[in-house]
């Protein structure tokens, strides 16, 4: 029989851990686990609200950049020609992802050793500081360093994934995971709106921000400050959220006059030997699991594709018409991205789970891939439209692209692929900037001129990502 003071009872017949009977004094994970069990399956509203708030803070610095980064680089006067603006914009877009990739393993170790909460709080604080500093940058190198430090000091993504699953009971873990994807969808609405409508405020709202004012001298500071201000209450609320990491290295508080209390320490020391005697069927090594490697490949290459497309779409929308663009303002880009984000959010909320359940995860990779290749190949034709026709086509195509992008990402990620995905996203904007600049240089070429080359490369990336899903692997194996 398990000791009365054990942190985790163990059913030897079924070799499966049961709910904790009593927490080890000083272990925050055990205390939280008890509260989870006491809720009797009810979702943790307070903790899930915190997950949503922090996840949104993490998404906004990325999505808010799309409407104005092209204009910001133009104002830095670092590009020797108009065709080189996208190249430098791509470097800034890559900087944050590169910093996140470099530090992701470190923050993972910190989260496992010292808790999820410190990593989340430090990451939120870095958003407040470095995102605000980015808005006040006056040259390219300052902006590049601010974005790099924002990614380097931000380990929120991994810690939030762990925290969202640990605060929920088995019945509600899907709610914790879906909260992350849902708030990202909300970020796709709010981020471009903040970045588009609040950039260059002295030009758009001269009565409020007159010439010579602070936000006239720093035209990109207002959206960055708003996002940093939004992160302040998130940081404060984080201090009142329980830690979810188990820490059994803490010395329990016991009654020295009660010998049975020492069983609590004894049990913790014996847990390792109990586990070592269990016969657990292990999965094959990752490098021998062809299905897992294929799923990771699709996930990571598609991440590169999605990041490149997100950057290219915004650059194409704001670049001048003589270079193949649409000549949009930041507010017009915000209109398109915010409306498309709203449609995507509703689709994600009501239709994506049903479609995935009905068709299966593999079909939700193959069909969207084929549609994406066709859709992105048609983008150069959109510049021939104008007025209501152009706006309708842009909103519908951008909405469809967001929907197709998300459908394939559900359930494929694991620790290794997440790290590789960060690397792919780090190179994505830089590669996109190079290709976009090349397309603008080749605007009058006889073969794949201008935007035909740009969006043709996006279609090729989608094809490269999807081809393995049609290979020799069995449907059931890759679906798993």
From TrEMBL:
InterPro entries the UniProt entry points to: MFS, MFS_dom, MFS_trans_sf
A family per Pfam: MFS_1
Keywords, sorted A to Z: Membrane, Transmembrane, Transmembrane helix, Transport
Residues annotated as domain Major facilitator superfamily (MFS) profile: 47-474
Compartments reported by the entry: Membrane
Transmembrane regions listed in the UniProt entry: 48-73, 85-107, 119-142, 148-164, 176-198, 218-242, 325-350, 362-382, 416-438, 450-470
Protein name: Major facilitator superfamily (MFS) profile domain-containing protein
Main location group: membrane
Cellular-component GO terms for this entry: membrane
Membrane topology: Multi-pass membrane protein
A GO MF label: transmembrane transporter activity
């Amino acid at each position: 029989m398990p000791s009365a003071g054990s942190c985790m009872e163990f059913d030897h017949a079924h070799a499966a851990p049961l709910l904790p009977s009593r927490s080890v004094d000083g272990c925050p994970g055990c205390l939280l686990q008890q509260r989870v069990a006491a809720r009797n399956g009810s979702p943790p509203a307070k903790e899930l609200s915190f997950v949503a708030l922090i996840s949104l803070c993490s998404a906004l610095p990325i999505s808010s950049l799309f409407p104005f980064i092209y204009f910001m680089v133009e104002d830095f006067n670092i590009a020797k020609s108009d065709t080189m603006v996208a190249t430098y914009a791509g470097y800034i877009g890559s900087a944050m992802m590169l910093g996140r990739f470099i530090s992701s393993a470190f923050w993972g170790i910190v989260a496992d050793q010292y808790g999820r909460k410190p990593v989340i709080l430090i990451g939120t604080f870095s958003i407040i500081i470095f995102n605000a500093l980015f808005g006040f940058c006056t040259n390219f190198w300052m902006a590049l360093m601010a974005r790099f430090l924002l990614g380097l000091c931000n380990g929120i993504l991994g810690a939030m994934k762990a925290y969202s699953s640990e605060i929920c009971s088995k019945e509600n873990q899907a709610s914790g995971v879906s909260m992350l994807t849902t708030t990202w969808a909300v970020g796709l609405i709010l981020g471009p709106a903040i970045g588009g409508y609040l950039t260059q405020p002295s030009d758009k709202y001269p009565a409020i921000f007159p010439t010579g004012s602070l936000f006239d001298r720093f035209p990109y500071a207002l959206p960055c400050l708003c996002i940093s201000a939004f992160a302040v209450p998130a940081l404060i609320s984080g201090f009142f959220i329980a830690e979810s990491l188990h820490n059994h290295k803490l010395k329990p508080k016991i009654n020295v006059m009660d010998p049975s209390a020492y069983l609590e320490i004894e049990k913790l020391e014996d847990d390792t030997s109990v586990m070592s005697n269990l016969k657990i069927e292990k999965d094959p090594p990752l490098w021998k699991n062809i299905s897992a490697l294929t799923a990771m490949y699709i996930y990571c290459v598609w991440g590169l594709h999605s990041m490149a497309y997100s950057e290219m779409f915004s650059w194409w929308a704001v670049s001048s018409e003589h270079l193949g663009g649409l000549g949009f303002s930041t507010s017009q880009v915000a209109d398109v991205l915010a409306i498309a984000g709203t449609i995507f959010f509703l689709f994600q909320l009501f239709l994506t789970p049903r479609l995935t359940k009905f068709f299966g995860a593999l079909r939700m990779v193959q069909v969207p891939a084929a549609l994406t290749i066709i859709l992105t190949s048609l983008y150069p034709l959109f510049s021939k439209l104008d007025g209501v026709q152009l706006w309708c086509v842009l909103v519908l195509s951008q909405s469809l692209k967001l929907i197709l992008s998300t459908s394939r990402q559900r359930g494929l990620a694991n620790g290794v692929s997440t790290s590789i995905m960060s690397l792919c996203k780090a190179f994505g904007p830089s590669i996109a900037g190079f290709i976009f600049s090349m397309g603008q240089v080749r605007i009058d070429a006889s073969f794949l001129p201008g935007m035909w080359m740009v969006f043709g490369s996006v279609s090729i990336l989608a094809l490269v990502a999807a081809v393995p899903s049609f290979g020799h692997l069995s449907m059931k194996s890759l679906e798993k």
